[in-house]
Specification:
alpha/beta, Leucine-rich repeat, LRR (right-handed beta-alpha superhelix), 31% helix
Length: 577
């Protein structure tokens, strides 16, 4: 029923959302149209807390004024009802525009809109305000074609001691929410806004959201766990530089995104000059294949993309070995047979050219002569020969493709093997005889991990395994995904433990592990207030045994490293150049 709230007559219902209803009204003195938002508290949260949060929203939003922000004029309470009086925008939101453009909006328009919204967020961030809910429906377009960011309804004042999201509810919209915000609403910062803006741009350009699911929780956990389709895979016709900007905005690890809006704005402005963003091209260069179609649901068990070539050091080392073998063989070959082919391509370029082809079975691929020479050279090492046979057998029993020499390195008798993203991989029995320096089984479906007896570094993030199976293995460093109970690891040889998120409520199991280092990239809200954790040695022991230190220990900088499939990273396997 329409009536009056404070001095504002509610004339027409404009819309209703999860945070409340919005009505058309007029300013009693200025006689300009206003949009009045009446807040509806959620049943699961204390009413007084909601009122504090609602009024605080108005104070935060009214403290800044920007041409790309919807202006707030008034905020308050009328009895049990809370309200905001804000600028009325007589135009559609970008969500409505998308309904009429299912393949995405004009790229130039989206780029200019991104620049305006990023500049508005920059101002908000300088005042300690985090928006937390950027989405197409919260970006309005004026009759003159300008865009304005609306709905600071779940804004967060970083400087205030009053934390209106202390309940830890993942406030935000699931299709655009940042991974750290999905795990703990209190951990959102300016980099979270950059992620949600990136997810919004992804939708506006591609016509589909980065992730979809049957429930809000499923969608949020995909933001946390699953690798993201590069935007250009969804829409091959889009500008590659713009696609790479979005990919960086949506890195799962906050420290790998743009760290502030200044950095983002710099690259968005370069887009307008048509200059190539080479620093992003090296990280995210991606060539789409016909196996990925726009707006088509991705198979949950699709094969991993073709791997790239060896690292440069490995290639150089291999060439040196071949040269040495060639010199030795000269003494055994008649003089008329010692002429070399001066036009033969270096091995590195051969590998790069070979791996750009569409993935096919190793048994059916037609290898050029130079590639055959490479396989022969590799087979000179008995360990390589054994491993190649094991990988062939592994591919056959698990129905994998594109697994071979490009997936591994051998150093000092230990194997570094990258099988990340092989979602069909269940049986690793062919690998049981080998000793691994580093074994990446992230984002796989391994069921018999207990057969891998020796792996100095083992990555199982985004892979469901029974931790009990790891106790008998010789592992120094272990990486896991989201864990709620680490008791099964007690008694294991693990010295460095990395995990994406710890949802358990007790710190006691950590005390019973003989850890030298503990890393939790997306927090453990039930045992520590920090959004990320990385401590070792004495500081780790202090953390484990001191309640005060657990509450206030300063954060350590996380070192950047190539991430597994669970964390967004540049293209190519870990051991690519």
């Amino acid at each position: 029923m329409l009536d009056i709230i404070a001095d504002y007559k509610l004339e027409k219902l404009l819309g209703r959302g999860g945070m409340g209803a919005v009505y058309l009204s007029h300013h009693p003195l200025l006689n300009i149209p206003l949009a009045v938002k009446i807040f509806e508290p959620h049943n699961s949260i204390d009413q007084e807390e909601f009122q504090q949060r609602f009024i605080r929203e108005g104070l935060l939003a009214a403290s800044i004024e920007h041409q790309n922000l919807v202006r707030i004029y008034d905020a308050g309470a009328d009895g049990s009802r809370n309200f905001l009086a804000m600028e009325f925008i007589d135009g559609p939101d970008l969500g409505e525009l998308l309904k009429n453009s299912p393949n995405g909006l004009d790229e130039g328009f989206v780029r200019d809109a991104a620049l305006g919204i990023a500049d508005a967020l920059k101002l908000a961030h300088t005042k300690g305000i985090i928006h937390r809910d950027i989405k197409p429906e919260n970006i309005l377009m004026t009759p003159k074609g300008y865009v304005k960011l609306a709905d600071l309804g779940i804004a967060k004042d970083q400087e205030s001691e009053l934390n209106v999201t202390a309940t830890g509810i993942a406030l935000g919209t699931p299709h655009y929410i940042a991974p750290e915000q999905a795990l703990d609403a209190c951990s959102a910062d300016q980099r979270s806004d950059i992620y949600t803006l990136g997810a919004t741009l992804y939708h506006l350009l591609c016509g589909s959201t980065p992730y979809d699911g049957k429930s809000p929780l499923e969608v949020m956990m995909k933001h946390v766990q699953e690798p993201m389709d590069h935007p250009i895979v969804r829409k091959p016709s889009m500008n590659a530089n713009f696609a790479n900007v979005i990919a960086k905005m949506m890195e799962k690890r906050p420290e790998m995104r743009y760290q502030n809006c200044d950095e983002l704005i710099e690259d968005l402005r370069l887009l307008k000059t048509s200059k190539s963003l080479n620093h992003l091209k090296e990280m995210y260069e991606h060539k789409p294949t016909t196996q990925h179609l726009p707006n088509k649901k991705k198979s949950a068990r699709s094969p991993a993309p073709a791997k790239k070539g060896f690292p440069v050091k490995t290639v150089i080392g291999g060439i040196a070995c071949l040269i040495l073998l060639g010199v030795i063989s000269l003494a055994l070959i008649p003089e008329e047979q010692t002429e070399f082919n001066a036009t033969k391509k270096p091995r590195e370029s051969i590998l790069k050219n070979a791996t750009t082809e569409t993935p096919v079975s190793p048994e059916t691929v037609h290898k050029p002569k130079a590639d055959i020479d490479l396989i022969k050279a590799t087979s000179l090492d008995p360990l390589s020969t054994q491993l190649n046979e094991a990988l062939k057998h592994l591919s056959k029993i698990n129905k994998l493709t594109a697994i071979g020499p490009n997936n591994y390195q051998i150093k000092d008798g230990l194997i570094n093997l990258d099988l990340s993203g092989q979602t069909n991989l269940k049986d690793v029995s062919p690998l049981s005889p080998f000793k691994f320096g580093e074994l990446d089984l992230s984002d796989t479906s391994v069921q018999n991990i207990y057969l891998i007896k020796n792996a100095d570094i083992l990555n199982l993030s985004n892979t469901e395994v029974k931790l009990e199976q790891l106790k008998s293995l010789n592992i120094r460093e272990l990486e896991l995904g989201i864990i709620d109970d680490i008791k099964p690891l007690i008694g294991s040889s693990v010295k460095t433990l990395k995990m994406m998120h710890y949802s358990g409520s007790s710190i006691e199991p950590f005390k019973q592990l003989s850890l030298d280092r503990l890393i939790i990239t997306n927090g453990a809200p039930k045992i520590i207030q920090r959004s990320s954790f990385d401590e070792s040695g004495k500081r780790l022991r202090v953390f484990l045994y001191s309640e005060n230190m657990r509450k206030g220990l300063p954060s350590s900088d996380l070192q950047r490293r190539p991430g597994p499939k669970g964390f967004q990273k540049g293209p190519g396997p870990r051991f690519a150049p």
